[in-house]
Write a structure and sequence with these properties.
alpha+beta, binds nickel (II) ion, three-stranded antiparallel β-sheet, five-stranded antiparallel β-sheet, 167 residues
């Protein structure tokens, strides 16, 4: 397959609750590979199943945890979450947030500062992850997508500057 079309604002699929993944098979691997390709092409940070028209509990995120900020070029790493669950949260941060399904609608969203989540990888192996900052925000944002909740439901207000540059 390859690139998938990103579902846009107004499509009712973005408001639907997703079902758990039950088969950790080649079809799932293909979906995840396609989602990576689509995310890179869109220059995004995270992407959830419903955003490519798949109502299953799956999302991916860029993994910047081990990235060297000074390196000129490096391969992007990704995290894959299947049937994820946020098991604990800590703190609160209100910050600029965007979504590939709502281009130009970037809002101020309050999220936990830290989260602990568990999920399965593409082979069906469970893992637990502690995340903070951007990754914690992404895990919350993408988990919302699996419940049919989007930035439109969460944003306290939207920025006028669509690039999200604050004064
Ligand atoms: Ni989103």
């Amino acid at each position: 397959m390859g690139l998938r079309t990103i579902v846009q604002d107004g499509d009712p699929i973005l408001t639907k609750k997703c079902r758990p993944v039950t088969n950790f098979d080649d079809k799932l691997a293909q979906l995840l590979d396609d989602m990576r390709e689509t995310l890179v092409e869109a220059n995004g940070y995270g992407l959830a199943g419903p955003q490519v028209g798949i109502l299953r509990r799956v999302f991916i995120s860029v993994d910047e945890r081990d990235m060297d900020e000074n390196a000129e070029e490096q391969e992007l790493k990704f995290l894959e979450f299947i049937n994820p669950e946020i098991i604990s949260t800590e703190g609160e941060v209100t910050q600029y947030e965007g979504c590939l399904s709502f281009p130009g609608r970037n809002g101020a969203v309050t999220r936990p500062e830290k989260v602990v989540a568990r999920a399965f990888d593409r082979h069906g192996n469970p893992f637990t992850i502690e995340a903070e900052g951007m990754l914690a925000r992404c895990i919350c944002h993408e988990s919302d997508h699996l419940e049919g909740i989007t930035i439109v439901d969460r944003a306290e207000y939207f920025y006028e500057d669509t690039d999200g540059e604050e004064e």
